Q: What sequence folds into this?
């Protein structure tokens, strides 16, 4: 039974993961990510960490992905053209990815002594191990300092995000800088020409392809 | 007064510093006062010290004064001065003759542009020479040794606006350097074995235990004493102009004549002899090297004399004469007759300085012309110079009664007495040649018709008193200085030899060098020497006297053209050295410059710069500005880190 | 029969590799971000798997922190994207080449 659940949701996670990476439309990619996160949450529960699974859905799928969707909508990100990417670059990245995978694989299995199917049995799940109480106990005693620091980090992130995304308000007097979605005709940002105010920054390759 | 011993070398140094650094702003009278005052003060203090020393008694019979003990790790060298019987003699010679030459220089260099510079250098020389003779260890001696070498270079190249004097100065310095290197090696060996360079720490040890230094071979297949003696002698070869390192001395005549008198006749060139006499213990234990010294000395003596008989430049005649007389001194030292060698140093200082100063007076009267072919009949115009010059010539020729006779006789006596008849014969022939070329110069210069230009004839006049008074004093010295060393047949004891006896240490187990002869043999030798000297004078008179002028000499040159040319061109030794040594060295230097320095060394540096540039040019391609490239590099780095952690 | 931990690790490795390829290959900035999130999740899976294997809480707590950091990173990163977009009107990362030297 456990094995069945594992395979099902592992396949789901794999499939939706590939979709995230491959699909051209950002919206579809984000929704695939949600699917991936859900599958991972199930796997977490399977591993005896229900709280982490719940946290995954709440924080990741509920907050981060929503944030992604908001920004995609705001910026009106259109489908990405399958650009004439150079074959060599793709090949290189594919190989690198393969190396990374292999490396992690190797590391995980041979170095740590875990063979496929030859692992020592994990200890039985206890109440203490699974419950929130056990987790919280460890969190607020042994790991109190990192906890506080992460809180600080979140504070900094909030401030940073606010400042970075701020409209250039009183400093800038150029109304063109205030962009609101829907102002300009629907054009693919990737297709629109170079910024007319700064003609020199256009890529030469882009100019050749589209002039 | 003995407490002021240290002032003797320091005062001339102060004089040199004052005149050198501040003299620009002094009037000529002040410069002269400083320049003369310093050596005069040194002379006075020296005489006082000598008086006190000879009338006092001291531990070990010597007076030592330590200024400063210099220690560097194991090295412990005191800066100290020593007054003993040997340094007393040298001190007297240097201060006395040195002062007289300073006085002479006032007149001789009076019209020179570089008057102040000249006296600054001359004082510096006095200071260095005094340090050399007063030092109580080899290192202080070496400091003085190098100092006089430096001053020699400075003073030879005094007329630096002409091309030859600086060249001669460089030649002197470089040839000296070869000797200095050997001297240093000897000092290193001495220090390595004894841990000290101080005389009174080394010599008694050697004398007490000679076996330690004569036993096993130390270097070059020689035992320690022989090795050190050889190294020291090579140093003396350079400084005292023996074969093969004598070539600098004739060219050194490019300097002003008082310089030739002081440095290249009376004092600096005798430093080598002083050093050998000081190290007599070592030489006594190195019989092979001592014989080598004697042979080189005799060879130099006759070789230089042979060149001297054909020269026409009056200073060159005297220069080769100096080389020849130095050969005599080393002949004596090599045979173990150290007191005879030092005796000859003293008498030679007087008459050679006299002869040089006299020639300077002649050159001064001839408006700078040194060629004897242009002179003649000068005795009418320069009476005082003439008389003193002849006295000097008689002295050097070895006419009985004058200084040279006694000292030369001592040397020949030592040669005969120790059984080296070949060396004795060489010395005798050289004595004859000496008499000949000296009186050749006398007759060519002072007798006959004047052969110079009309203008020169007008200008002929006797020198001022500042120049003639030192001549007279030196003339007296040339006569009298021999009387302190009368041989035993004439007086009960040889006072000079007795005076020097305490300095000649006798190593245990070694019999004193036997130089005894029967009284009859000694008288016979003296007569033979006298006859040879008089014979030489007679031949000179026959050829150049009787108002014959140059005629007879040219007659001989015509009859023996090859020999004459060889002698006139100094046996082509300079040319041989040029081809064998100087040119190859210059070629090697040029190779190192053009090839090694330009390609190898500069190339290595430039290659480094080139590599850096190359790296930059190649590395530049990684800054694409493309964020995805950077992400790729990032990722690559992570992978590498990963692998490293995994396979650490 | 319970699932061996090694299979979870294998899954995690594959997901991580997929996410890495995506992060390097895509031109769209948002897509890159999504790939990064995928990588983070793969890492989280590994951590939880090991927490299970060794019977400790440590892995889960680290996941806790990772999630918090991921959230912070996403927020700030997207804010930056918005700022860049205002200037460049594009989030194609190929166009962001001011660092070219």
A:
């Amino acid at each position: 039974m456990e094995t069945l659940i594992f395979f099902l949701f592992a396949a789901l996670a794999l499939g939706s993961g590939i979709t995230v990476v491959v699909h051209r439309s950002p919206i579809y990619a984000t929704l695939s990510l949600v699917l991936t996160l859900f599958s991972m949450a199930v796997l977490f529960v399977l591993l005896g960490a229900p709280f982490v699974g719940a946290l995954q859905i709440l924080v990741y799928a509920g907050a981060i992905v929503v944030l992604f969707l908001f920004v995609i909508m705001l910026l009106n990100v259109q489908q990405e053209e399958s650009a004439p990417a150079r074959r060599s670059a793709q090949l290189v990245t594919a190989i690198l990815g393969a190396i990374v995978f292999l490396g992690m694989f190797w590391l995980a299995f041979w170095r740590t002594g875990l063979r496929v199917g030859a692992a020592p049995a994990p200890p039985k799940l206890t109440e203490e191990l699974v419950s929130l109480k056990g987790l919280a106990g460890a969190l607020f005693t042994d790991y109190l300092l990192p906890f506080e620091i992460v809180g600080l980090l979140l504070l900094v992130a909030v401030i940073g995000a606010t400042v970075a995304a701020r409209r250039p308000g009183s400093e800038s007097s150029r109304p063109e800088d205030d962009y609101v979605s829907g102002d300009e005709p629907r054009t693919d940002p990737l297709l629109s020409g170079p910024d007319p105010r700064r003609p020199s920054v256009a890529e030469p390759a882009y100019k050749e392809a589209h002039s | 007064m003995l407490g002021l011993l240290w002032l003797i070398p320091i005062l001339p140094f102060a004089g040199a510093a004052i005149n050198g650094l501040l003299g620009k702003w002094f009037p000529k009278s002040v410069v002269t006062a400083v320049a003369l005052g310093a050596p005069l003060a040194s002379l006075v203090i020296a005489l006082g010290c000598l008086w006190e020393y000879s009338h006092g008694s001291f531990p070990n019979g010597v007076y030592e004064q330590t200024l400063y003990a210099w220690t560097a790790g194991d090295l412990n060298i005191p800066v100290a001065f020593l007054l003993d019987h040997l340094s007393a003699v040298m001190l007297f010679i240097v201060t006395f003759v040195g002062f007289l030459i300073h006085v002479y220089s006032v007149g001789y260099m009076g019209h020179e542009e570089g008057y102040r510079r000249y006296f600054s250098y001359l004082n510096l020389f006095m200071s260095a020479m005094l340090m050399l003779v007063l030092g109580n260890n080899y290192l202080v001696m070496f400091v003085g040794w190098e100092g006089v070498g430096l001053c020699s270079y400075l003073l030879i190249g005094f007329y630096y606006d002409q091309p030859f004097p600086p060249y001669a100065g460089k030649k002197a310095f470089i040839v000296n350097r070869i000797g200095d290197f050997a001297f240093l090696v000897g000092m290193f060996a001495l220090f390595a074995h004894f841990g000290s360079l101080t005389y009174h720490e080394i010599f008694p040890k050697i004398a007490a235990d000679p076996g330690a230094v004569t036993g096993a071979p130390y270097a070059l297949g020689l035992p320690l004493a022989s090795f050190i003696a050889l190294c020291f002698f090579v140093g003396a070869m350079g400084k005292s102009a023996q074969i093969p390192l004598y070539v600098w001395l004739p060219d050194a005549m490019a300097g002003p004549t008082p310089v030739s008198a002081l440095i290249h006749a009376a004092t600096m060139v005798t430093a080598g002899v002083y050093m050998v006499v000081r190290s007599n213990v070592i030489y006594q234990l190195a019989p092979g090297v001592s014989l080598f010294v004697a042979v080189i000395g005799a060879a130099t003596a006759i070789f230089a004399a042979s060149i001297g008989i054909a020269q026409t430049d009056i200073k060159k005649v005297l220069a080769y004469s100096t080389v020849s007389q130095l050969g005599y001194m080393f002949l004596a030292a090599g045979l173990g007759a150290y007191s005879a060698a030092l005796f000859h140093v003293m008498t030679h200082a007087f008459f050679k300085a006299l002869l040089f100063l006299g020639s300077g007076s002649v050159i001064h009267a001839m408006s700078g012309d040194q060629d004897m072919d242009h002179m003649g009949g000068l005795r009418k115009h320069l009476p005082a110079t003439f008389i003193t010059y002849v006295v000097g010539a008689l002295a050097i020729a070895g006419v009985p009664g004058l200084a040279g006779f006694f000292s030369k006789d001592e040397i020949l006596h030592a040669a005969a007495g120790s059984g080296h008849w070949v060396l004795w014969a060489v010395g005798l022939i050289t004595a004859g040649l000496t008499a000949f070329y000296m009186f050749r110069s006398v007759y060519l210069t002072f007798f006959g018709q004047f052969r110079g230009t009309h203008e020169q004839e007008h200008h002929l006049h006797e020198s001022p008193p500042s120049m003639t008074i030192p001549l007279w004093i030196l003339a007296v010295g040339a006569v009298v200085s021999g009387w302190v060393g009368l041989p035993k047949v004439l007086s009960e004891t040889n006072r000079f030899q007795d005076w020097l006896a305490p300095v000649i240490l006798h190593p245990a187990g070694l019999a004193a060098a036997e130089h005894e002869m029967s009284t009859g043999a000694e008288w016979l030798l003296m007569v033979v020497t006298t006859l040879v000297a008089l014979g030489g004078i007679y031949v000179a008179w026959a050829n150049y006297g009787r108002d014959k002028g140059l005629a007879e000499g040219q007659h001989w040159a015509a009859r023996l053209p090859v020999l004459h040319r060889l002698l006139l061109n100094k046996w082509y030794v300079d040319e041989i050295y040029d081809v064998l040594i100087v040119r190859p060295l210059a070629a090697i230097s040029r190779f190192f410059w053009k090839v090694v320095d330009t390609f190898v060394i500069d190339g290595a540096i430039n290659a480094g710069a080139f590599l850096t540039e190359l790296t930059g040019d190649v590395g530049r391609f990684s800054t694409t500005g493309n964020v995805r490239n950077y992400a790729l590099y990032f990722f690559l780095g992570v992978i590498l880190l990963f692998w490293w952690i995994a396979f650490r | 029969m319970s699932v061996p931990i090694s299979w979870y690790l294998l899954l995690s490795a594959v997901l991580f590799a997929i996410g890495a390829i995506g992060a390097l290959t895509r031109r769209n900035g948002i897509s890159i971000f999504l790939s990064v999130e995928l990588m983070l999740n793969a890492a989280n899976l590994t951590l939880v798997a090991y927490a299970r294997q060794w019977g400790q809480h440590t892995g889960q707590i680290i996941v806790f922190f990772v999630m918090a950091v991921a959230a912070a990173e996403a927020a700030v990163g997207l804010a930056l994207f918005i700022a860049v977009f205002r200037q460049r009107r594009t989030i194609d990362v190929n166009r962001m080449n001011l660092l070219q030297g």
Notes: The CA atoms of residues 26 and 101 of chain C lie 23 Å apart. Chain C touches chain A through 80 residues (CB under 8 Å). Chain C is about 75% helix and 0% strand.
